[in-house]
Amino acid sequence: MNIEQLISPAVPTLLPEDSGSHALDQMEKSGFSELPVISEENYIALIQENDLLDWDTPDASLSTAGFLNYKPAIAASSHPFEALRILHQLNLDILPVIDHEQKYIGAATKSTLLKYITENSGIDNPGGIIVLEIAPRNYTLYEIARICENEDVIILNMQVHTNELGMLEVTIKLNRTVLAAVVSSFERHNYRVKEVYGEDNKDDDITGKYNLLMNYINM
């Protein structure tokens, strides 16, 4: 999926001849703190609320403003992850989407992108979370996946970032909430399990002990 498929119809546009007061009114009605200025399908700029509030002549047309040089945008063929990165980096609520001719197609919103991420990354599926702390030189995606697979656990999502100590924190979303077995397996392989978010299950614990007993009897 590309970002063009996530364009929101809820984002109004402004014209260069609109006044600053009109722009503020549109922002209040739409709930967005920035709106795109469009002229004959061309993307002119992204107007921000703070600039309008600081403007000495809010009743003048936007074309006379000195702040029409801010033009963040993303190509229509880009992935939603890239759009979310830009929104986060620039602290925006909306991101204009343009084609290869710099024509304005529409805008993606932060809420739409977060909904997409939630629904398409396994985050909204039930399951537990394990956070591992790993030295960068020891990070092996294959081994992490193999350990989970050996415990009959499916990885729904995995995120990796570097913490303030220079260590990798690997956050793993799994398809089970009872994680004692897979946690023990990671620890046996000398992984530092930093955090666990799941459920204790006494029935599973009893089943595990029963299986150990039966294995012992059958030896």
Written overview of the protein:
- By secondary structure, the protein is α+β, with helices and mostly antiparallel strands.
- It has helices at residues 20-30, 49-53, 80-90, 110-120, 141-150, 180-188, 202-217; strands spanning 34-39, 42-48, 74-75, 94-98, 104-109, 129-134, 155-162, 168-174, 192-197.
- The protein has two domains: 3-118, CBS-domain, CATH 3.10.580; 129-217, 2-Layer Sandwich (VC0802-like), CATH 3.30.2130.10.
- The strands form three sheets. Strands 7-8-6-9 form a four-stranded antiparallel beta sheet, covered by helices on one side. Strands 3-4-5 form a three-stranded mixed beta sheet. A two-stranded antiparallel sheet has the order 1-2.
- Helix 3 (80-90) packs across helix 4.
- It starts with 19 loop residues before the first helix and ends with a helix.
- Residues 201-210 have low confidence and may be disordered.
Low confidence ranges: 201-210
What's the gyration radius in Å? 25 Å
Please name the CATH architecture of the largest domain: Roll
Number of domains: 2
Mean pLDDT: 89
Measured as a percent range, the helix fraction is 25-40%
Shape: elongated
Q: Tell me the strand order in the biggest sheet.
A: 7-8-6-9
Which fold name fills CATH's third level, the topology of the largest domain? CBS-domain
The number of distinct β-strands equals 9
Q: Tell me the major beta sheet.
A: 4 strands, antiparallel
Give the CATH level 1 class of the largest domain. Answer: Alpha Beta
Number of helices: 7
The CATH superfamily of the largest domain is: CBS-domain
Ends distance? 54 Å
